[in-house]
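Could you please review the protein record set out just below?
***
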Amino acid sequence: MTDASDPMAEIRASFFIECEELLEAMQDGLQTIDDGEWDNETINVVFRAVHSIKGGAGAFGLESLVRFAHRYETVMDSVRSGTMNVDNDLLKLFFRCADHLSDLVRCARDGLDSPEEQGKSLVGELDASIGLTGDEVEEPEEEIEFQPMGLSLDLGLDLPDMAASLDLPQFEIEFAPAAELFDTGNEPFQILKALRDLGECEIECVTDKLVSLEQLSAETPYLYWKVTLSANVDPAEVASVFEFVDGLCTLKIEALSVSEGAAELETDATLEDLPPPLPTVADEPIVQAEKVETKDPVVTRSASQAKAPGAAAAKSVVRVDLDRIERLVNLVGELVINQAMLSQSLESAGLSPHSDAMNGLEEFQRLTRDIQDSVMMIRAQPVKSLFQRMSRIVRESSAAVSKDVRLETEGENTEVDKTVIERLADPLTHMIRNAVDHGLETTQEREAAGKSSQGIVRLSAAHRSGRVVIEVSDDGGGINRPKVQEIAIKKGLIPADSVLTDTEVDNLLFLPGFSTAASVSDLSGRGVGMDVVRTSIQALGGRITITSQEGVGTTFSISLPLTLAVLDGMVVQVAEETLVLPLNVVVETLTLTQDNLDQVRPGLDVVRVRGAFVPLFDLGVSLGYREKKDDYTDSVVLLIAHEDGSRAALIVDEIQDQRQVVIKGLDDSFYRAPGIAAATILGDGQIALILDPSDIIANAQDPSLTKFAS
């Protein structure tokens, strides 16, 4: 939320949103370098991100952010110019500097104190990397003040007589910034200074587009500059000065020819007019300029220039407050509920399926589905930003326990509901730290086992069966199950005579108060961790499972719904209760007969489905609605598919309908019973529970473990 009384608050908020995108681009570039697949443009991307953050921070007087970004930028520039090579130590320093830059941005945004000590240490390492001492360190350029009423811009320079440089190539440049240039943190002064660095130049600030004070708009640039440059460079090098503002200005660069011995400049091509007048408040906004080649004597980047054939259109992005999107999602939910009520009312009225009302209802249902899908796409975001945060957790955790660890990611572009992404950060942080601290062996242990000294933590995301599955795995020693069971017995979590399967032992890790750490450290050993993870995942309507192999590693799999708003459900009747199951987990329906119903042992029934035996569960019994029946012949069964490919069969009394339902979360005042994911409101106004079949089946299979986890 921005302060309406502060006209700069909205611009400041936009700057910090821009910083998030720049920090993401910077992390992408550094990761590409770490992967060994980089080129000069990768370095440029990182450099531009730091440079843009510095420029924007300077506009808001964020001095600590400007100072650190300047030092970071200086070292990056040395790499960009080829005077420094990127080795493993320097890359690690760049990653730590990127983390600190992110902290500085966050502190500036939230009004917190900056971590000065950490910044001083990193600045010292940056300066040392390029051989600078404290006395030699270059500070950021101070801003200059100028009066925009004159015909020249005084940069405080002694400009020599241009006639003395007539033997050098000369260029006439017209540069008019668009409003977007300032939004990205760029400044005309820095660009003009860069031109000055190329050679001798004469700079004129043109003020004829200024409007009266009453018409003045703070967001509209009214000044533009004419520059005559004398330098032994080619047009491409001159154009490269404007690389950071490509598409954010109107630019014209023209090479000049000079008659031998003459003191006056003559152009190859006569300039038509000055650039089009910059817009006032009532004018149309400037269209971003297009990128053009710089081989010809005349280089033009004009705001009115047409796109080249085949050029890809730039994507337009509109930033919207999340509160507005949430309101839209809620309205769509109400629309779905009202559509269901209308549908049920018309069906109850006994109208013909071919009547105009029923045809209109069918079209209304289609439009409702399209609107719902579109709104869900607005909320969906890639998990990339979340994965980037985990990269930092790996770096910090591995440093804390003195282990060499590398994070590998897969499926960063997998899209998940934004709410899910935000609430996944804490559980994933616990799991990553657990993998680094407990999962991976020490360097000496790995080498003794014939493994690489560098441990690997993998983080992946993918869509499976209408859900998103996120996995955290390591190539460590796996779970020491005898030790886990021994600790659980000592802590009184399970009886001493318990006989547990491997899966049951693994699930002991989720019990409250369980910890295998011998001592308390910054990362673990306080008896808090995996139980918090499971609680957080269950609150999102998800579940978590463990697979582990001794000496090979451990994998934690999180299965989550794609959205927390609307789902396609199957409405069923069980013991006179109306329930909803996610449609995507239902493979098929069938009716039990004496031929396909078998019993493996008392209490364990199976159903034969095309030559395979599938475990059979009575949904009413599992939920405590009724006692187990003696005979299930002619019962209706839903065949359920799990993410791992296994199947199970659920007995229900009746299948009522298939429809979209709006997910209504259960708050903390409700008991979170196993297998109950959420609730919904049906078309007749009745409240129905939304089930998680996999959770129900898991508890039905392991009733002995349920009481330990309660």
